[in-house]
Structures are given as C-alpha cells and as structure tokens.
Amino acid sequence: MRAGKKLAAVLASAVATVIAAPAQPAAAAAYNCFLSQNLCLFYGTFNQGSYVFFTPGVNDANLNDNTFAESGSGQGQTVGNNTRSASNYNSSHAVVLCTGVNYSGICRILAASDDWNLPSDLTRNVESFYWVA
Ligand SMILES: [Ca+2]
Predict the structure, then answer these.
(1) Total number of domains constituting the chain
(2) pTM (2 decimals)?
(3) Protein residues near ligand 1, an ion, with CB under 5 A
(4) Torsion angle, CA of 25/31/32/35, rounded to 10 degrees?
(5) Domain span at residue 101?
C-alpha cells in the first residue's frame, strides 16, 4: 500500500509537470511534433530552433507567407527559403517538399515517420509542400 501511494504521488507529480510544461518550447515541440501525426518544419538543423507544424492532409502551396511561430532561434522568420530540417511524424503519409511555390521546382519525398536535415538542394530553399494521399 505504501509503495502504491508513493507511486501514485510520483505519477501525480509527473502529470503536473506535463500540464505545466506547455510554456516550455521543448514541451510545445513535443506536443505539436513528436506526439502528433503532424509535419514539422524547423528553422534550425537537427529539428532545433523555432518551428511550424502542419496537420495531416493540409497542404501549403506557398510557405513564403508562413512564419516560424514557436519560441527558439529563427522565431518570426519566414518559413519559405528558411527551413533547414523537417520531421514527418505521420505514420502513414509521406510529404513532398518543393523548392518553388505551387509544388514546382525540385521536389523530394520525405517518407512517413522520417526526418531530415534537408538535402543541399532543399535546405533554405523549400517554398511549398503537399501530403501524399
Ligand atoms: Ca502558406
């Protein structure tokens, strides 16, 4: 019983920590990216810095009117031509990222459940993306 109560207290503490966490950038990223089925685009390499997330099935033909919203390096910068890494947390749908607006230019597939430092021809050069059905 006593051990059980202690465990319950630890769990309650953990829950409180999780609930309190959204003020922290890393926790926000955990919610919007790592614990989601979303596509996340990051200002920095290795999924670092400010980021923006897109829900499954919602394409964006022009990332030049999006800004990195979350706190971190690059916050407020334009997403178009500034994305350095990307993570596709969707377990069933790939995404295609393109260097031009309206899915033009060089386009490359980011597989489901995969992440990238963008290849040299895409880094700081992505302007649109779409989900693969
Ligand atoms: Ca847009």
Answers:
(1) 1
(2) 0.78
(3) 60, 62, 65-66
(4) 140
(5) 37-131
